[in-house]
């Protein structure tokens, strides 16, 4: 097992920058998820750690050793891709054994490792099958088995579940969590699926436009996004973001005014000289509750019942756009009715013009 450290690591393709200089340390045995919108540089960062892409600047250390210019096979890493890339003419057992044969391990050891790895991934009954006789989830488990059979110090996974359907993805998420416990290896997992990020990661690394925006425990990042990009990337439905102006600042917080003239009290601390400043008010759907005197109002344009809860989309607020409020599953709502909602001061977020979050009061 090994730690992974990247230092001032950057990647340019011609004149475009896929990754700005980035520092990141991943602990030995840690499960870290890189998450962010398409094109934000997640795969590029992962591929440079794997040695599949040459950095433009900076260095990569694995287990304290500088591997920036080492071949992929000399880094102690294994990678699982979105496409399974199994050898179709080989059986499951032969596919799993392949990297060990290449490494010229003794036959008895290969057999033992294939048996153990297959058991770990629930593939023991499928060892004689060819890939075409497997389901998508089984094929992905074989490709994971083939990666972990070498006992890599670091396992790199690039959107490994994105070809699978929803229920299989949920099952495989559990398997990854279990696999991480069993193997204890350092795992770096790339996804644009924030549900995978939230459920799998010990720490998430939220990326946007070639930069790391925030690193932290999933729940901390969810509760206190450091920037608008993080607020937009984590949470589904996403955080409501409304343009507002700072009208009052005191020791307990800040009052902002919405475009329609309504005032909203927040427990956020902004500098005293920010009166009049344009800010963005952020509120998660679950923090908006029906309140006759609430500052947010709109006609219900769309109502989604998910069973235990539902989402009301309140429209027609002019430049503020639609607001999404989470409601109990059994709440009766009529399309077109006007609903008023409010937020508690401690649940409101404020972002400055430079898109960084202001701290809580
Ligand atoms: N070989 C390449 N040549 C030129 N540009 C590239 C190359 N590979 C990646 N890029 C660009 O670098 C940026 C980051 O790409 P990257 O694949 O790392 O994003 P990502 O966050 O993994 O996205 P996705 O979730 O869509 O895979 C993108 O703008 C992409 O177009």
Automatic annotation (TrEMBL):
This protein's record includes keyword Transport: yes
Q: Which family does it belong to?
A: Belongs to the ABC transporter superfamily.
Q: Which superkingdom heads the taxonomic lineage of this protein's source?
A: Bacteria
What UniProt keywords are attached to this protein's entry? Answer: ATP-binding, Cell inner membrane, Cell membrane, Membrane, Nucleotide-binding, Sugar transport, Transport
Q: Which InterPro entries match?
A: AAA+_ATPase, ABC_transporter-like_ATP-bd, ABC_transporter-like_CS, ABC_transpr_MalK-like, ABC_transpr_MalK/UgpC-like, Mo/tungstate-bd_C_term_dom, NA-bd_OB-fold, OB_MalK-like
Residue stretches making up the ABC transporter domain: 4-234
One GO molecular function term?
ATP binding
Region forming the signal peptide = none
Supply one GO CC term from the record.
Answer: maltose transport complex
| Protein name per UniProt | Multiple sugar transport system ATP-binding protein
């Amino acid at each position: 097992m090994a730690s992974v450290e990247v230092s001032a690591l950057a990647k340019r393709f011609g004149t475009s920058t896929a990754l700005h200089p980035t520092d990141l340390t991943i602990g030995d045995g840690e499960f870290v998820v890189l998450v962010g919108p398409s094109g934000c540089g997640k795969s590029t960062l992962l591929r440079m750690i794997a040695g599949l892409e040459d950095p433009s600047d900076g260095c990569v250390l694995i287990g304290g050793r500088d591997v920036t210019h080492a071949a992929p096979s000399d880094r102690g890493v294994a990678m699982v891709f979105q496409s399974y890339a199994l050898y179709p003419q080989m059986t499951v057992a032969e596919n799993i054994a392949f990297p060990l044969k290449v490494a010229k391990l003794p036959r008895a050891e290969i057999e033992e490792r294939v048996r153990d790895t297959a058991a770990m991934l629930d593939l023991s009954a499928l060892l004689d099958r060819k890939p075409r006789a497997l389901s998508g989830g089984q094929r992905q488990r074989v490709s994971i088995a083939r990666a972990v059979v070498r006992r890599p110090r670091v396992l790199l996974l690039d959107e490994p579940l994105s070809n699978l359907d929803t229920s299989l993805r949920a099952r495989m998420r559990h398997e990854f969590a279990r696999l991480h416990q069993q193997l204890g290896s350092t795992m770096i997992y790339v996804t644009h699926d924030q549900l995978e990020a939230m459920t799998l990661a010990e720490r998430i690394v939220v990326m946007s436009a070639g930069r790391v925006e925030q690193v932290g425990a999933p729940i901390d990042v969810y509760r206190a996004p450091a920037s608008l990009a993080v607020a937009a990337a984590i949470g589904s439905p996403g955080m409501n973001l409304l343009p507002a102006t700072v009208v009052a600042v005191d020791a307990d917080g800040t009052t902002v005014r919405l475009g329609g003239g309504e005032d909203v009290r927040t427990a956020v601390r902004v500098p005293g000289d920010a009166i009049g400043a344009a800010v963005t008010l952020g509120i998660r759907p679950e923090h908006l509750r029906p309140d006759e005197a609430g500052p947010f109002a709109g006609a219900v344009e769309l109502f989604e019942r998910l069973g235990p809860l539902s989402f009301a989309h309140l429209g027609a607020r002019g430049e503020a756009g639609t607001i999404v409020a989470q409601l109990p599953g059994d709440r009766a709502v009529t399309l077109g009715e006007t609903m008023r909602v409010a937020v508690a001061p401690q649940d409101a977020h404020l972002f400055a013009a430079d898109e960084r979050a202001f701290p809580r009061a």
